[in-house]
Design a protein that fits this description.
Layout (H helix, E strand, L loop, with lengths): L3 H5 L4 E6 L4 H10 L3 E2 L12 H7 L8 H9 L2 E6 L8 H17 L2 E6 L4 E2 L2 H9 L6 H12 L1 E6 L2 E5 L8 E4 L7 H17 L11 E2 L8 E6 L16 E6 L1
Parallel strand pairs: 8-11
Antiparallel strand pairs: 1-3, 1-4, 2-3, 4-5, 6-7, 7-8, 9-10, 10-11
Length: 249
Amino acid sequence: MIDDQTLMSSRHVLCVLGTGLDLGEVEAAAAKEGFGLDWEYSGAEPDPRMPEAFEACAARVSFTTADWDAVESHDTVAYVLSPPVLPDVAFTVARRTLVLAADLLRSGATAVKNESNGLTHGRDRWLDLAAGIYDGTPEESAIPLYRALVKRPISDGSLHFSCGMHLLGAPDVELEPAGDPDPEDVAGLIDSLALYLLTECRAGEIEDGEGFRSAPGEPRWVLRHHPCDRYDEDDIFFNPHGYLRMTPG
């Protein structure tokens, strides 16, 4: 059983950069989505750590030259905090996070990264992801949320895992394959189970020892729950829902 205090620790923290960015306007935009501005850490001055911080958040995947220039030339940093990510409102808060990121980018912000999953996107990618969150069925709308908020694959020796599923109210995925699989295959397997967890009603009923196949005819994987002991409970990456680990069947 996850206690309420631990659940309350999960939240989105957006780091927003700009040039001449009005922090009062950022606060007003955040308030419309139920978010708040952290005035203690926000400020109208450049932070020389930002280029390295954005590099560490997988910026190379979707960053353009203009995105990098925006990070280099910023003179204002704002930190925006979401409400707590409780399981019954996780998707709502996630959608509001993407809406807010897009609104800020359209109104003067030049770069955004999510501190809570160690992930960023270029401006165009943020806008594309935000545009898809209300399209199609609820199951289909989970895909842009997942793409926006879950970093994967992360490797720790022979173990590969995701980070960010706590922002969607679900366990992160671990994969312990045999041999040395291709990184794209690893990402695909993690995606298949993660999206199952986000879209299937019986995902919360999975028991240790159950089997999983990414598609009919694909290899069988055995699933087991593990606690999140990779991060401390007060770490922004901590997942109170733990991990679901895949091992060869």
